């Protein structure tokens, strides 16, 4: 069976859903509460999945494949940046990690959007805490790898050699 852009879109949607499903599982069944940067990464996984799902349904021609790939690469790049920021925060010595900040709900309810967004991107002590690892890597490390892999898949979906 030849590799087609539709298979790649389905793969991206499946991966994003699996990653989001596991994140929700760890939140509601393992009791791991997501920090603001974790929630932001989830949002970029959702946006990537929505673009891939739309492309899967619409089945675009070459220009549409370029647009879809461009949007997915944009979202995976932004998600990678957020994940990298959290990995960096987790690598700081405990005395250099930023203090814990207000909750995400509080920030968006009580601060102007620009200030809430910039506070969100700075991260806080909750973002620097490592509460889960697999093979010695924290969840943001795995999230970073996933964003990079999904971005590469998005690029592959637009290659002319991949059938529509």
Automatic annotation (TrEMBL):
Residues 1-8, 61-66, 161-164 are cytoplasmic. Gene3D superfamilies: DsbB-like (1.20.1550.10). It is a multi-pass membrane protein. Keywords: Cell inner membrane, Cell membrane, Chaperone, Disulfide bond, Electron transport, Membrane, Oxidoreductase, Redox-active center, Transmembrane, Transmembrane helix, Transport. GO terms for biological process: protein folding. The chain crosses the membrane at residues 7-27, 39-59, 66-84, 142-162. GO terms for cellular component: plasma membrane. It comes from the Bacteria. Disulfide bonds join 35-38. Residues 26-43 are periplasmic. SUPFAM superfamilies: DsbB-like (SSF158442). GO terms for molecular function: electron transfer activity; protein-disulfide reductase activity. Its main location: membrane. It is found in: Cell inner membrane; Cell membrane. It holds the Pfam family DsbB. Required for disulfide bond formation in some periplasmic proteins. Acts by oxidizing the DsbA protein. Belongs to the DsbB family. This is Disulfide bond formation protein B.
């Amino acid at each position: 069976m030849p590799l087609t852009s539709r298979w790649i879109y389905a793969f991206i949607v499946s991966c994003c859903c699996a990653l989001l499903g596991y994140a929700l599982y760890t939140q509601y069944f393992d009791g791991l509460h997501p920090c603001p940067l974790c929630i932001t990464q989830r949002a970029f996984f959702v946006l990537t999945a929505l673009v891939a799902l739309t492309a899967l349904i619409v089945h675009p021609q070459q220009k549409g494949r370029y647009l879809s790939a461009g949007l997915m690469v944009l979202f995976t790049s932004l998600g990678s940046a957020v994940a990298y920021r959290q990995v960096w925060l987790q690598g700081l010595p405990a005395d250099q990690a930023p203090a814990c900040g207000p909750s995400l709900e509080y920030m968006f309810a009580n601060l102007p959007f620009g200030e809430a967004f910039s506070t969100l991107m700075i991260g806080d002590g909750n973002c620097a805490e490592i509460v889960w690892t697999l093979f010695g890597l924290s969840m943001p490390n795995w999230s970073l790898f996933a964003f990079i892999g999904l971005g590469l898949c998005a690029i592959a979906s637009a290659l002319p050699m991949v059938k529509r």
